[in-house]
Amino acid sequence: MSRKKTTEHSPSQAVTKASQETDLDLVISRRAFLKDTAIFGTSAFVIATKSFGQTDLDSGRSDLPFIPVATNTEDTVTLPEGYSYGVLTRWGDPIYPNAPEFDSESLGSAFSQKLSVGDNNDGMDTFSVNDRVILVFNNEFTNREIIFANRTTRLPETDDDVNKGKFAHGLTIVEIRETNDGWEIVKDSEFNRRITPDTEFSVVGPANGSDLIKTNQDPLGQEILGTFNNCGNGKTPWGTYLACEENINGYFSSSLGEKFNQNVYEKRYGIANKGEDWGYKWAQTDPRFDVSNEPNEPNRHGWIVEIDPTGKKKPKKLTALGRFKHENAELVIAPSGHVVVYMGDDERGEFLYKFVSKNKYEAGGTNTDLLHEGELYAAKFHDDGSGEWISLKNANFSRDEMVVYARIAASKIGATTMDRPEWVAVNPNKPEAYVSLTNNKYRGEKISQPLNMANPRKKNRYGHILRWTPENKDHAARTFSWDIFVLAGNPSKFTDLNGGSWNMNTDNMFNGPDGLKFDSKGNLWIQTDGDYSNENDFSGMGNNQMLMGDPRTAKIYRFMVGPKECEITGLTWSPDKKTMFVGIQHPGQKGGSNWPDGGSNIPRSAIIAIKRNDGSAIG
Ligand code: FEO
Ligand code: CA
Ligand code: CA
Ligand code: CA
Q: For residues 114 and 32, what is the distance between their CA atoms, to the nearest angstrom?
């Protein structure tokens, strides 16, 4: 935990190297390294500036609540001194008193999976209901080689296997409580339930009743079965949870096999490429996942869904927020009372979106339908550090086409193709928002994804975090200014832009920024889903990790390192802020971990509860 001497790349090195690259690299490098001298105070910079008196070697701020940890490749969770953790729950843990315990031989069945925690926990949030705590979390997908490790093919072989995998998707909702032994699920709580790919949802917004979503099972286009591949999340001020459907394409196949020809819409959304799914085989037990049988079924997924944690209201598919590979949904109330939801579409060359509600929020009011109707925009970033939100209405699609094929509408209006937009987070202390752009091997390679100031590196392998400030401090505004908070990189390997921006050093380096969330004090927590090989371009970066960024100084400090082959994703707090819940997704994805149970146990995705040893608040 001691701090090593920091390796910094000097401005002269960077500019010299950069001059061998493109003009764009040169401009960015100069701006990055000269930001607090030549152009400080002008409107032209696009990289986060240092404050006066702040140096790259400055080890931190006086009120930093932890001593940063070094990177490592251990099969454990590493935290700073003075912090410790316990495992709250893992894939396969029962959520009801009479549900079977996880069976490490059979690895469960469809029956047991429906009664237990889903796999690959991702976005999550807590809700206080009469002094009780409800935890809602997404179960994004399954690692088939882990959950079917008892099968020679490491794939679902029987119908029951297929359904087990299916029911490992969706969401888990449980009441939790803290005991002397740490946090645990309250198994006999009436709040506990699973939401699965078979749960009934009503359709609200422009796609309700649309021909584009009608199927044999739902000829009116008003009720959809199920949610799956729920990635990040959001939370509304009226006490509901938003789960964001991401890689929904991986579940559809065609009974025509290789002879299946994708239409333009299926192609843009990656539906049934070559007639195949990604190995889930859902069409084997549920014909709606065969696109040749039910061509509109894919249009019924890829939405943001709204869920009442108490289970009193029926879940909804919010079609006004558009259909794409949703990462999270960061909701903020504009000064006017309009509800603004920022959303990333996580695919190379896709877009950053914003929804602005038609009606206004009133604190304590009864209007809980604000996400049913509004306007959808996609972002255009100009190279001078300005930007604008362009309404998808300009695409001149019909109302339902505009949301069902939001990607195509956003292309039509000339939004800026981005380097895989993941989570968006809004600073609670300042009108600004941040987005992780996790990586993009096509940047500068595909003609549709040219270099630009907002996505400045060719074959962006490390990712970056961009932020914007809306005009007039109003998140509903049409224009904004932006800069790059950090270019992640490896300064021990590179002196050019691949070494990262000034605030990246050998002590804090990382790649693949993904989860982003502010705590109540205004610290920006950064979770990574990057290359954990610790080799070559990624040497010295270790396992995936969680860091804390300071939005005031743009300094970044490593807080935690995860176990082998995991990503860190999902973050929330107990209502008293004395516990931070963090998601550890797919440890041992490549067979190299036995976390959290150790020994020869199978690795299991889990949620951990982190506390300060002195019991004080942690965010
Ligand atoms: Fe589910 Fe884009 O991560
Ligand atoms: Ca993610
Ligand atoms: Ca990711
Ligand atoms: Ca993931």
A: 51
Alpha-carbon gap, residue 159 to 268, rounded angstroms:
30
**Largest Cα span, the chain:** 69
Looking from the CA of residue 246, the nearest atom of ligand 1 is: 1
Cis peptide before 100 (omega within 30 of 0): no
pLDDT value for 542:
98
Q: Tell the residue number behind the tokens 């030549």, with chain if given.
A: 38
Atom of ligand 1 nearest to the CA of 529: 3
Write phi, then psi, for 292 (nearest 5 degrees): -80, -20
Which tens digit of pLDDT belongs to each residue from 458-502? 999 999 999 999 999 999 999 999 999 999 999 999 999 999 999
pLDDT in tens, 160-195: 999 999 999 999 999 999 999 999 999 999 999 999
514-536 burial: b if 16+ Cβ within 10 Å, else e? bbbbbbeeebbbbbbbbbbeeee
The three-state (H, E, C) secondary structure of 182-210, written as one string: EEEECCCCCCCEEECCCCEEEEECCCCCC
**What single DSSP character describes residue 287?**
G
71: amino acid identity, one letter: T
Ligand 2 mean position to 596 CA, how many Å?
Answer: 21
| Coil vs helix vs strand at 144 | helix
Instruction: Locate 155 and state its tokens.
Output: 């794939």
Contact 161, 148 (CB under 8 A): yes
pLDDT given at position 556: 97
Is residue 277 within 8 Å of 257, Cβ to Cβ? Answer: no
The number of C-alpha atoms within 13 Å of 4 and in the hemisphere containing its C-beta is 13
Q: Cβ < 6 Å from ligand 1: which residues?
A: 140, 231, 246, 327, 346, 422
Chain mean position to CA 222: 28
| Token representation of residue 613 | 């040893």
Cα(564)–Cα(606) distance, integer angstroms: 13
